[in-house]
């Protein structure tokens, strides 16, 4: 490669590139460095390998897909059918159900890594990554090593860190307060009064799990929310939506989805679940807010097994005061308040990623590529399908540079 010759020259004149320095905590990576060994990082590494481009994955935990393996509840299944969640180049096994379980998805990811011989460097937490304009390389620093690379792929995703809101009186509560990232099963809450804060897919499903373990859950609903049946007209709601969008404008598809939902689920506003003014697809497209795909929680709300509550004003000793002035007693609180990106904490770059939320500044589908060989995968707010699209684009882009360098090197070697 052309840039390899540059390195040889720099080794002779630049002290950071001499052999002694390279052996003392510095590592030169010929291909891209990928930060994160979740589905996005694995997909990108596989796509690159298929095109003959080597890569190195740095992963802060001791296993692949650590979020899935360590920070998800036991009953979790994929919310979308498996054909919309498979990674590039390898479908799910045919014997897997339409909505694979958490453990099945983990098995799929482990098989994926084995098939493409992806071997992340575990327990390598990136503390800082910065582009060195003098050298023309990215400096990616962990506790033990500084990696030098031409391309840097950020695959830490939208869900790197749990979001736990500050609420007045937290220290007074006295009972357990956890985030869903620490929740495994409702078994430990059997017979207890549990307040779940957050009405997204996780909050709804945790409430259902608590009911199934004979707990007494209540659900804080502060905002409007779209609840759709997971299946419509014999098809997955997501699959039906994607098919309709091929022929109809988004607003009309939204209108049809809401008509069918009203027929199947009834008026959710009667139970304290007001719908947003924008349709579910339009809202998802503009804000990234995902509609809830109901797996049985709404029936428990209708029956009164799950109680709907307004926002929290403050916590008291084993009690919660709500914004409407009511106070109720609870034994535990579970925050289903989502996750956030951690990119601003370690990536010293201001063009591709926003410092405010750690997400790409440019909206989908233009947020995957930055300057100086920087890429983002898995930040589309479109789940595994969006991550796969990113992985394919990134591998194609880097392949062009890789082959161009190889061609120039071949021409020079013959002159």
Automatic annotation (TrEMBL):
Pathway as given in its UniProt record: Plant hormone metabolism; auxin biosynthesis
UniProt-listed InterPro entries: Auxin_biosynth/cation_transpt, FAD/NAD-bd_sf, Flavin_mOase-like
Cofactor: FAD
Single GO term (MF): indole-3-pyruvate monooxygenase activity
GO biological-process terms attached to the record: auxin biosynthetic process
EC annotation from Swiss-Prot or TrEMBL: 1.-.-.-
A Pfam family per the record: FMO-like
Catalyzed reactions per annotation: indole-3-pyruvate + NADPH + O2 + H(+) = (indol-3-yl)acetate + CO2 + NADP(+) + H2O
Domain of life from the UniProt record: Eukaryota
Keywords, in A-Z order: Auxin biosynthesis, FAD, Flavoprotein, Monooxygenase, NADP, Oxidoreductase
Family, per entry: Belongs to the FMO family.
Protein name (Swiss-Prot/TrEMBL): Flavin-containing monooxygenase
Organism: Vitis vinifera (Grape)
């Amino acid at each position: 490669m052309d840039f390899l010759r540059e390195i040889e020259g720099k080794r002779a004149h630049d002290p950071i590139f001499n052999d002694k320095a390279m052996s003392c905590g510095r590592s030169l990576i010929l291909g891209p460095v990928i930060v994160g060994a979740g589905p996005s990082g694995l997909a990108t590494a596989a796509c690159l390998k298929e095109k003959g481009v080597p890569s190195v994955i740095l992963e802060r935990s001791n296993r692949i897909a650590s979020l899935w393996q360590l920070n998800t509840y036991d009953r979790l299944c994929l919310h979308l059918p498996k054909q919309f969640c498979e990674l590039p180049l390898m479908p799910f096994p045919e014997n897997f159900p339409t909505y694979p379980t958490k453990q099945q998805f983990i098995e799929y990811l482990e098989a994926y890594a084995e098939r493409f011989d992806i071997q992340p460097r575990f327990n390598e937490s990136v503390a800082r990554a910065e582009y060195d304009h003098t050298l023309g390389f990215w400096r990616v620093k962990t506790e033990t090593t500084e990696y030098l690379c031409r391309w840097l792929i950020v695959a830490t995703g939208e869900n790197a860190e749990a979001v736990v809101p500050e609420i007045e009186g937290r220290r007074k509560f006295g009972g357990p307060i956890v985030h869903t990232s620490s929740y495994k099963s409702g078994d430990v809450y059997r017979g207890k009064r549990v307040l779940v804060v957050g009405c997204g897919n996780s909050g709804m499903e945790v409430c259902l799990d608590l009911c199934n373990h004979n707990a007494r859950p209540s659900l804080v609903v502060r905002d409007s929310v779209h609840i759709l049946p997971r299946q419509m007209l014999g098809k997955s709601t997501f699959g039906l939506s994607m098919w309709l969008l091929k022929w109809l404008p988004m607003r009309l598809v939204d209108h049809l989805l809401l008509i069918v939902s009203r027929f199947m689920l009834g008026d959710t506003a009667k139970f304290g679940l007001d719908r947003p003014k924008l349709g579910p697809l339009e809202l998802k497209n503009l804000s990234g807010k995902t509609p809830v795909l109901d797996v049985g929680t709404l029936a428990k709300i209708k029956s009164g097994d799950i109680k709907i509550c307004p926002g929290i004003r403050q916590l008291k000793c084993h009690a919660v005061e709500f914004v409407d002035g009511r106070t109720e007693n609870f034994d535990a609180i579970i925050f289903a308040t989502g996750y956030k990106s951690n990119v601003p904490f370690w990536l010293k770059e201001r063009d591709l990623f926003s410092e405010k939320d750690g997400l790409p500044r440019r909206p989908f589908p233009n947020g995957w590529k930055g300057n100086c060989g920087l890429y983002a995968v898995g930040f589309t707010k479109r789940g595994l399908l969006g991550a796969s699209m990113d992985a394919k684009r990134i591998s194609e882009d880097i392949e062009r540079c890789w082959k161009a360098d190889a061609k120039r090197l071949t021409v020079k070697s013959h002159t």
